[in-house]
């Protein structure tokens, strides 16, 4: 039986949550580091972190980047609560491409900065 669209979307979201994959996550842990999502989940009050723009796909075609499966690029953005207050944050994800700034990263950060003064959480995925 084929999966419905909701199930496919949930599977894709789970894959994105793994960043660059299990091997790269293990490499971060071996260095004593947390992944970007682990850092954000640790930063916010438990269960309040909402990731935004998780489904953004890298559009860079230089250096073979178009062949790289790099959803979300190299940054995790979102919002959550700290002591009941909404806080926006982002964290570099070095398990994805290992680079600090991708082509879509400024767009994701810009949405965070634009939403902040309005105190309205940005569109989330």
UniProtKB/TrEMBL annotation:
- Give the residue spans that cross the bilayer: none
**Could you give a GO molecular-function term held by this entry?**
propionyl-CoA carboxylase activity
Q: Which residues form the CoA carboxyltransferase N-terminal domain?
A: 2-125
Q: Which PANTHER family match?
A: PROPIONYL-COA CARBOXYLASE BETA CHAIN, PROPIONYL-COA CARBOXYLASE BETA CHAIN, MITOCHONDRIAL
Protein name, please?
CoA carboxyltransferase N-terminal domain-containing protein
């Amino acid at each position: 039986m084929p999966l419905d669209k909701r199930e496919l979307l949930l599977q894709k979201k789970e894959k994105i949550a793994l960043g660059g994959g299990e091997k790269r996550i293990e490499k971060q842990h071996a260095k004593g580091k947390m992944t970007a999502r682990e850092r954000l989940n640790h930063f916010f009050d438990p269960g309040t972190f909402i990731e935004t723009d998780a489904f953004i796909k890298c559009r860079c075609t230089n250096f073979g980047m178009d062949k790289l499966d790099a959803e979300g690029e190299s940054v995790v953005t979102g919002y959550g609560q700290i002591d009941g207050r909404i806080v926006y944050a982002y964290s570099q994800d070095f398990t994805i491409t290992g680079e600090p700034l991708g082509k879509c990263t400024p767009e994701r950060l810009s949405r965070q900065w634009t939403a902040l003064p309005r105190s309205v959480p940005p569109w989330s995925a």
